[in-house]
């Protein structure tokens, strides 16, 4: 399958939902992933990207949370579950998927926050991810602004 922007978008959509489920239910990653494959049409999804985001966040959780937590105005545990899942996923993506432009990562997170998050959560997420991008992708951000 050729990887398209829409296939990546679907991967992020499902990864965010899977992370949300993992946070709430606490089931194993493999169980949740199997449920997603059973319950959703993954034929137009970048499944490898979904798996990388979902498992990558869980595997690197302390590092991921430590990176974005520095920019929060509250504790990580005080975030609503959708915002927490999005910040985890997007921070992981900024840290580990340098093949994806930082603006794409942020725009996709904002779009998902508008769709699934509480009112105005997208503004908060945008602000946090802007700061994370400056920290973990400083050369890219500087090149973009210069």
From TrEMBL:
Pfam families: NusB. The lineage of its organism: Bacteria, Pseudomonadati, Pseudomonadota, Gammaproteobacteria, Cellvibrionales. Residues 9-133 form the NusB/RsmB/TIM44 domain. It comes from the Bacteria. InterPro entries: NusB-like_sf, NusB_fam, NusB_RsmB_TIM44. This is Transcription antitermination protein NusB. It comes from Microbulbifer celer. SUPFAM superfamilies: NusB-like. Keywords: RNA-binding, Transcription, Transcription antitermination, Transcription regulation. Involved in transcription antitermination. Required for transcription of ribosomal RNA (rRNA) genes. Binds specifically to the boxA antiterminator sequence of the ribosomal RNA (rrn) operons. Belongs to the NusB family. The gene is nusB.
């Amino acid at each position: 399958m050729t990887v398209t922007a829409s296939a990546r978008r679907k991967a992020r959509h499902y990864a965010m939902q899977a992370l949300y489920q993992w946070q709430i239910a606490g089931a194993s990653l493999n169980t949740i992933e199997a449920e997603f494959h059973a319950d959703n049409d993954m034929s137009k999804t970048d499944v490898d990207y979904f798996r990388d985001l979902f498992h990558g966040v869980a595997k690197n959780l302390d590092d991921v949370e430590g990176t974005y937590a520095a920019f929060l105005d509250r504790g990580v545990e005080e975030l609503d579950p959708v915002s927490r899942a999005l910040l985890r996923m997007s921070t992981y993506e900024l840290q580990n998927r340098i093949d994806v432009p930082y603006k794409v990562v942020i725009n996709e997170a904002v779009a998902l926050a508008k769709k699934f998050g509480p009112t105005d959560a997208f503004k908060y997420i945008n602000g946090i991810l802007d700061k994370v991008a400056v920290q973990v992708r400083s050369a890219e951000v500087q090149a973009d602004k210069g």
